[in-house]
């Protein structure tokens, strides 16, 4: 089966849109720690169906951590998220690498500090290991 030019163009336009939305979501969470998907959707004027995949992508790649629970408009609990943060200088300007199941290595561009974090299966922050050389 061959792909049409329009199919290829659509793929790249969605990919570009997704990257831009990921950046917007991460910047919002960075400025507003403890945000839920619903908070992000309301603040960025996005549909929840657009926000949830972006936060999932950021969590899977270690850039967002689940740091607690927050209330949604319906009164139910939702995950509260924060940007991954250097324990040394509190910067969010990080390079992330996956080191294994649930383990991520981080390099801070601000202070040069290296650390690791262990995340649960659902990206909840379990432990920051601050002794990486």
Characterise this structure:
The chain has 133 residues and is an alpha+beta fold. It has helices spanning 5-31, 37-44, 48-60, and strands spanning 64-71, 77-83, 94-100, 103-108, 114-119, 125-129. 36% of the residues lie in helices and 29% in strands. The model has no long low-confidence stretch (mean pLDDT 85).
CATH C-level class of the largest domain is: Mainly Alpha
The DSSP helix count reads 3
Q: How far is the N terminus from the C terminus?
A: 50 Å
What radius of gyration results from the CA coordinates? 16 Å
CATH topology annotation of the largest domain: Arc Repressor Mutant, subunit A
Q: Order of helices and strands, N to C?
A: HHHEEEEEE
Query: What profile does the largest beta sheet have?
Result: 4 strands, antiparallel
Estimate what percentage of residues fall within beta strands: 25-35%
Low-confidence stretches: none
* CA-based shape: globular
Feature tags:
133 residues; alpha+beta; Arc Repressor Mutant, subunit A; 2 domains; four-stranded antiparallel sheet; 3 helices; 36% helix; globular
